[in-house]
Specification:
Layout (H helix, E strand, L loop, with lengths): L8 E4 L1 H9 L10 H10 L3 E6 L2 H9 L3 H11 L5 E5 L12 H13 L4 E4 L10 H9 L3 E7 L8 H13 L4 E6 L6 H14 L4 E5 L6 H11 L3 E4 L13 H8 L10 H15 L16 H4 L3 H13 L6 H14 L9 H15 L8 H8 L11 H7 L18 H8 L6 H9 L1 H10 L9 H6 L2 H5 L17 E7 L2 E7 L14 E3 L6 H6 L9 E4 L4 E6 L6 E2 L4 E7 L2 E6 L4 E6 L6 E2 L4 E5 L1
Helix pairs in contact: 1-13, 2-11, 5-6, 5-19, 7-8, 8-9, 14-15, 18-19, 19-20
């Protein structure tokens, strides 16, 4: 007698992780809706279409409401279970939220159409997923308790088996092995699933990426070991840093006891559709399109690579990518070997990038790096580097409790801050996740952004506009006919610049604010030069590109060396700019929300 049928169930990730890995999470809802009904006909186990970076990307970059995306897609796909990636106590953000926020976020997601919650913690500290798991269970939804797979001296097979047992005991309905960086190898995959199957009764769901070229072999070994479900991506958005192609697996299993039962004809139509859609996002394509076995060393997930490339391009530093990739494993070791999954991947990646861009390791330490070292994200798997710990703990103490235990309830604060202007559960939860980004989104959401305008999109970026200031339209000439004075704004400050034909003499100007241009001085020197003589001044400039998250001082304030002056947001992380001298704030050149480049003047201390 032949073996009993054991069909493999497939979760399609094209609407979430595939474009997060390949296209920096930029796919718009309007490119998803036309194919939604066809996706609903396939018969997938589930469709991953939300969570991860999609929520942030919607309101930060796409001017879209992520809650609307969930509802609109659900209307088009009533038959296929929707699945989301939830970061435990982080929800879809980059910090721990109080339990009341987590509970409301999970409940509202369930109410609006989410069926399966894949819940993980970046450090595999399951204290940080307990609230989300229990809330999803109360909502009668399916919970995928998740192990973030990684490789390090402290991560051994026995440890992962113990994690699986713990997740089953917590009430998980499915166990997910999340191989976000494609670090699994065939033998490890077989051994890991075999041992977990011996110790728990839950179905096992494998999530793995194609970055190292091993995904196909890993999936086959997982099937041989008894895996129940696997994640795949439709072929036109597969491979590279994405996932194994859906059609390839369906074809490989046809006529076997593991036959998926999915229709290759429908899948081919879907693949053709996304092949065209992908062209809309060419500007966000990762340069990584093949196989890189070196990822087994750097351990950088697919979505992290494409986003890191995009961030470095914005900073005109794409040539430093190789240096950053070499620095990532060093930073990870210093931080006690956290798995490189959000938000730990962003924390490690951003800190590695800063170490490279500043030319000195830990010259600037992000707020999030301080938080993870101090225990504010949970228990780190391994020991911390003593040097990094000493730098971070000068004024702070480490904690060992569940981080959320230290947080006061937040919902009342959210509703108070928003008042009567934004009262929907959608808006309040979006604000709770990303306050400043959400407020900006609320102001602009009625002005949809075009899909196919890559050049216009680049030109609209404030940082690039400010790099080449244009003369004011109503410039007034105050010199003889051959010369003119223009009003220009550099780094947020107004200047007058007198210009004339090359080789001509410019007349003396009585106005002290007029800077004659023969030759014209470069904008940075104009911005940095003190306008008058007097006591020594410190011009505080930005050490990195990003935006001004918050101002901690105002003109006239007295500051001491070490005081925080400005908090910048760069690469989704917060960096505090501290004073290196004592004095009084003489002038401030930026305001909250301003886009800035490396070297831009922030303020002057006199």
């Amino acid at each position: 007698m032949g073996a009993s049928p054991r069909p493999i169930k497939i979760t399609e990730v094209v609407l979430r992780d595939a474009h997060q890995s390949l296209l920096a999470t930029r796919m718009r809802t309007e490119d998803m809706l036309p194919i939604a009904e066809k996706l609903d006909q396939v018969g997938y186990f589930s469709l991953e279409m939300w969570g991860g970076a999609t929520f942030d990307s919607c309101i930060r970059f796409l001017n879209e409401d992520p809650w609307d995306r969930l509802r609109k897609l659900k209307q088009k796909m009533p038959n296929t279970p929707f699945q989301m990636l939830l970061r435990g106590q982080n929800c879809v953000g980059y910090r721990h939220y109080a339990d009341d926020i987590v509970e409301r976020f999970v409940k509202h997601s369930a109410d609006e159409g989410m069926d399966i919650f894949r819940i993980f913690d970046a450090l595999n500290d399951f204290r940080n997923i307990a609230t989300a798991v229990s809330t999803a269970k109360k909502c009668n939804k399916i919970v995928e308790g998740t192990i973030s797979y990684t490789v390090s001296p402290v991560h051994r097979l026995e440890l992962f088996v113990q994690m699986a047992i713990q997740l089953e005991d917590m009430g998980s309905d499915i166990l997910c092995i999340k191989d976000m960086a494609g670090l699994l190898t065939p033998k490890v995959t077989f051994d890991l699933i075999t041992e977990i199957k011996k110790n728990i009764k839950l179905p096992i769901h494998l999530h793995t990426h194609s970055t190292t070229g091993l995904a196909g072999m890993n999936i086959q070994c997982a099937i041989d070991a008894g895996v129940d479900m696997v994640d795949t991506a439709i072929s036109s958005l597969s491979m590279g840093t994405s996932h194994y192609p859906t059609e390839s697996l369906v074809a490989a299993l046809q006529g076997t006891v593991h036959d998926t039962g999915l229709d290759l004809g429908i899948l081919e139509e879907i693949a053709d559709y996304f092949e065209e859609v992908r062209k809309n996002y060419a500007e966000f394509e990762s340069d990584f399109k093949g196989v890189d076995i070196n990822i087994l060393k750097s351990q950088i997930p697919g979505g992290m690579i494409s986003n890191m490339e995009n961030q470095l391009r914005e900073q005109n530093a794409i040539d430093k990518l190789d240096q950053v990739l070499e620095e990532v494993p060093r930073v990870r070791k210093d931080m006690g070997y956290p798995p490189l999954v959000t938000p730990a991947s962003q924390i490690v990646g951003s800190q590695a990038t800063l170490n490279v861009l500043t030319g000195e390791r830990y010259k600037i330490i992000t707020k999030e790096t301080r938080g993870i070292v101090l225990g504010k994200y949970g228990k780190l798997p391994g020991p911390l580097d003593p040097g990094l710990l000493a730098k971070v703990t000068e004024d702070d103490k480490t904690i060992d409790c569940r981080p959320a235990d230290l947080l006061e309830p937040e919902w009342k604060t959210v509703t108070t801050e928003l008042g009567n202007e934004y009262t929907s559960e959608d808006d309040r939860l979006s604000y709770a996740m990303f306050p400043k980004v959400a407020l900006k989104f609320f102001e602009t959401r009625n002005h949809p952004m075009p899909v196919k305008s890559a050049p216009a999109s680049k030109a609209s970026q404030p940082a690039q506009e400010s790099a080449a200031p244009a003369p004011a339209p109503a410039a007034t000439a105050v010199a003889p006919a051959a010369h003119a004075v223009y009003n220009v704004k550099v780094n947020g400050r107004d200047y007058q610049v007198e210009v004339g034909p090359a080789g001509s003499a410019l007349p003396a100007s009585p106005a002290p604010a007029v800077a004659t241009a023969a030759p014209a001085p470069a904008p940075p020197s104009l911005a940095a030069a003190p306008p008058t003589s007097g006591p020594a001044k410190e011009v505080v400039t930005s050490p990195l590109p990003g935006s001004v998250f918050s101002m901690k001082v105002k003109v006239g304030d007295s500051v001491n060396s070490g005081d925080t002056l400005v908090v910048l947001e760069s690469m989704k992380m917060e960096t505090e700019i501290k004073s290196h001298t004592s004095g009084v704030i003489q002038s401030i050149s930026v305001k909250e929300g301003d886009k800035i480049n490396t070297g831009d003047e922030l303020l002057i201390i006199g």
